[in-house]
Design a protein that fits this description.
With about 325 residues, this protein is of the alpha+beta class. The protein has two domains: about 1-130, D-amino Acid Aminotransferase, Chain A, domain 1 (2-Layer Sandwich); about 140-300, D-amino Acid Aminotransferase, subunit A, domain 2 (D-amino Acid Aminotransferase, Chain A, domain 2, Alpha-Beta Barrel), CATH 3.20.10.10. Helices cover about 25% and strands about 30% of the residues. It is built from seven helices and 16 strands. It has helices at about 25-30, 55-65, 75-90, 165-170, 170-180, 225-235, 290-300; strands at about 1-5, 35, 40-45, 50, 100-110, 120-130, 140-145, 185-190, 195-200, 205-210, 210-215, 240-245, 255-260, 265-275, 275-280, 310-315. Strands 7, 8, 9, 10, 11, 12, 13, 14 and 15 form a nine-stranded mixed beta sheet that branches. Strands 1, 2, 3, 4, 5, 6 and 16 form a seven-stranded antiparallel beta sheet that branches. β14 and β15 form a beta hairpin. α2 crosses α3 (about 75-90). The longest helix is centred in the first third of the chain and has 14 residues, at about 55-65. It binds 4'-deoxy-4'-aminopyridoxal-5'-phosphate. Its EC number is 2.6.1.42. It comes from Salix brachista. Its cofactor is pyridoxal 5'-phosphate. One of its GO terms (molecular function) is L-leucine-2-oxoglutarate transaminase activity. It catalyses: L-leucine + 2-oxoglutarate = 4-methyl-2-oxopentanoate + L-glutamate; L-valine + 2-oxoglutarate = 3-methyl-2-oxobutanoate + L-glutamate; L-isoleucine + 2-oxoglutarate = (S)-3-methyl-2-oxopentanoate + L-glutamate.
């Protein structure tokens, strides 16, 4: 789907996956005017497909587009395009329990622009791919290292929207961590280097007794849709959930730590290394709390329990 600056997106069309043509001076290539989303489709036992809260992805893209000076598809255009793309690729959705179809909507400044300015033209497209687990550990515990020098987001920057530059910003720290055998990096606030923010591609939760805490959204953390859903699921399961400033030292005292995201779903954290210390939360698998939340969320997403929240969208 295409759109000029200040205009509305045209009706989209389905195309075979392949390279796209871009001007070397496209806004996305030169000035980073790009946003993306990520969501999944699961196959049910009866063969129908389930999307999870696609209108939330649409709303996050609209919010991000405003920050990046881009027009965006409406919620209806976004969700309709996701449905059409998934249905056209139905045969690629793995059987129940064998993975999911990852859906990647992209919005970019595709028009040519030489001096620094918003692009004169925009393209919205969606591609899909079958996926299994995100971390090589599967749903086994992941191992994080706290990063003190490099930051993914700064106050007033674009850390709270899903723009492509945020991912370029984490590549160095993430590659270094992986080379040292860690699964990913845990970022801190860049002012006091004291408060937890998030991991390169997921949000973080800290469990202590019946209380589950997660960093509050304040512009430098991506407002994860899984995060938001897990907060509701946890409350419905009787946990107390706090969205607040969470200090890095609270990691020392936590019973369990877990990450959430579309790709990682709910992943237990086995250890966090910081200031040279390795804090371990159990190497065996899920803790009791993260296991309970993982179980409820995945059953909801796969249509195995009643969807009282009305979060899933069924396609046949
Ligand atoms: N933080 C970052 C930086 C991410 O890239 C993602 C993945 N979209 C998340 C958190 C989790 O967001 P969601 O639950 O919407 O996938």
């Amino acid at each position: 789907m295409k759109c000029t600056k200040g205009g509305n997106f045209s009706k989209g069309e389905l195309q075979r996956f392949g390279n796209i043509e871009l001007s070397p001076s496209a806004g996305v290539l030169n000035y980073g005017q790009g946003l993306f989303e990520g969501l999944k489709a699961y196959r049910k036992e009866d063969g129908n497909l389930l999307l999870f809260r696609p209108e939330e992805n649409a709303m996050r893209m609209i919010m991000g587009a405003e920050r990046m000076c881009m027009p965006s598809p409406t919620v209806e255009q976004f969700v309709d395009a996701v449905k059409a793309t998934v249905l056209a690729n139905k045969r690629w959705v793995p059987p129940p329990g064998k993975g999911s179809l990852y859906i990647r909507p992209l919005l970019m400044g595709s028009g040519a622009v030489l001096g620094l300015a918003p692009s004169p033209e925009y393209t919205f497209l969606i591609y899909v791919s079958p996926v299994g687990n995100y971390f090589k550990e599967g749903v086994a515990p992941i191992h994080l290292i706290v990063e003190y020098e490099l930051h993914r987001a700064t106050p007033g920057g674009t850390g709270g929207v899903k723009t492509i530059g945020n991912y370029a910003a984490v590549l160095k720290a993430q590659s270094a961590a992986k080379a040292r055998g860690f699964s990913d990096v845990l970022y801190l606030d860049c002012v006091q280097k004291k408060y937890l923010e998030e991991v390169s591609s997921c949000n973080i939760f800290v469990v202590k007794g019946n209380t589950i805490s997660t960093p509050a959204i304040k512009g430098t953390i991506l407002p994860g849709i899984t995060r938001k859903s897990i907060i509701d699921v946890a409350r419905s399961q009787g946990f107390q959930v706090e969205e607040r400033l969470v200090t890095v030292d609270e990691l020392l005292d936590a019973d369990e730590v877990f990450c959430t995201g579309t790709a990682v779903v709910v992943s237990p954290v086995g250890s966090i290394t910081y200031k040279g210390k390795r804090v371990s939360y159990g190497e065996e698998g899920f803790g009791a709390v993260s296991e309970q939340l993982y179980s409820v969320l995945t059953k909801l997403q796969m249509g195995l329990i009643e969807d009282k929240m009305n979060w899933t969208v069924e396609l046949s």
